[in-house]
Amino acid sequence: MTFLLSLLETRILGVLIEKQITVPDTYPLSLNSLVSGCNQKSSRDPVMAINDTEADEALVHLKELKLVESSHLGGRIARYSQRFAAVFQVPSQSVAILTVLMLRGPQTAGELRLASERLHKFSDISAVEAFLEELASRSAGALVVKLPRQAGARESRWAHLLSGEPVINEAAPQAKEVADSGLQARVDQLEAELMELKEKMARICAELGVE
């Protein structure tokens, strides 16, 4: 693919993919749920604070590129779904890796394995590395790139190329620690459950005609 996406557009795609897998009962997502997912403070780098108008503008472009579809599913509220795998022709394992990179920024193979656990369980780091190498050498165009190893770091990080060549922040810490996977998984689960409850309440209010 020759088009480039903005940071917000990749965030939206990442959220749609993530929520489709982790909270399927609330998928496709309403605009409110999508904005909440983009502004989520955990498992996001950078943390964003977008509004409905900004999300709407990004969605228009994503729909033009056939990466996102909208529907109403019998209700008044528009809901959004993604077509990432169909457009880029990549397997689910690669989609999981790219989703983490879109949501969390550059990661090492080890970090990717931990962070993508809810999207796809990789058997080991070598499996992650194999899919990364495949994404980096695609004949249709590379989707990831291996960044130069930072001083003091034991592993190189990888970044997606959906928004062009990544800008390396030299002022960033030299070594990025892997967050405690158990605690992070619990935080993600609680946030997913809260979003699911909010979505169900919104649907009930819509059916009852209550604002």
TrEMBL record:
- Keyword flag ATP-binding: no
A Pfam family the protein falls into:
DUF480
- Keyword line: Coiled coil
> Does Nucleus show up as a keyword for this record?
no
Q: Which Gene3D superfamilies match?
A: Winged helix-like DNA-binding domain superfamily/Winged helix DNA-binding domain (1.10.10.10)
Q: Coiled-coil intervals in this record?
A: 180-207
PANTHER family from the xrefs? UPF0502 PROTEIN YCEH
Family affiliation:
Belongs to the UPF0502 family.
This chain belongs to the protein called YceH family protein
Q: Which organism is it from?
A: Iodobacter arcticus
